[in-house]
């Protein structure tokens, strides 16, 4: 068999003819046009995707951050993803907030004075399948720990010198 010549074209034509006739037979047997089946499946999937998260904000404490956001229409719950300044390259799944009406989450196990980035992503469960919406992202920082026993060695009009 010589590739790139007459034989290759002949084989490709036969394969195409077989695939085309199979598609026509499937459409005739099922009495459903192929395009109608595909569009219907796409429409069903898009109706199950919850709306994007909006209004994401945070409140910071020394070792904790509370996130809050607006309710996502159609959400069954929310996934919280985290990226910290300690591991700055990838977000990872951190927590799940169950219930679409629950629109806040607090983490009390954070290091003080560290930058954290969070993503909140809505999800919807339909027939044991999970559909995910668009996320909102926010950068946060925990409040640094209180500084104690500071000694001032020099004071000017514009600065303090600390020991």
How much of the residues is beta strand, in percent? 25-35%
Shape estimate:
elongated
Number of E-state strands: 10
Q: Summarize the main sheet.
A: 5 strands, antiparallel
Termini gap: 86 Å
CATH architecture of the largest domain: Sandwich
CATH class of the largest domain: Mainly Beta
What's the rounded overall pLDDT mean?
A: 78
Question: What's the layout of helices and strands?
Answer:
Elements (H helix, E strand, L loop, with lengths): L5 H25 L3 H14 L9 E4 L4 E4 L8 E8 L7 E7 L5 E4 L7 E12 L2 E4 L3 E6 L10 E4 L4 E3 L1
Antiparallel strand pairs: 1-2, 2-5, 3-4, 3-6, 6-7, 6-8, 9-10
What are the main properties of this structure?
single chain, 163 residues, alpha+beta, Immunoglobulin-like, 2 domains, five-stranded antiparallel β-sheet, 2 helices
């Amino acid at each position: 068999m010589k590739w790139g010549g007459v034989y290759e074209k002949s084989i490709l034509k036969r394969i195409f003819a077989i695939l085309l006739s199979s598609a026509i037979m499937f459409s005739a047997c099922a009495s459903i046009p192929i395009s109608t089946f595909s569009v219907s499946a796409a429409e069903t999937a898009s109706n199950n995707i919850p709306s994007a998260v909006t209004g994401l904000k945070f409140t910071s404490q020394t070792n904790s951050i509370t996130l809050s956001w607006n309710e996502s229409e159609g959400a069954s719950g929310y996934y919280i993803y985290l990226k910290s300044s300690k591991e700055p390259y990838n977000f990872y799944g951190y927590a799940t907030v169950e219930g679409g009406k629950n629109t806040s989450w607090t983490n009390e196990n954070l290091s003080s004075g560290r930058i954290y980035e969070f993503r909140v992503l809505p999800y919807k469960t339909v027939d044991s399948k999970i559909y995910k919406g668009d996320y909102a992202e926010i950068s946060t920082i925990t409040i640094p720990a209180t500084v104690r026993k500071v000694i001032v060695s020099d004071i000017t009009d514009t600065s303090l010198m600390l020991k």
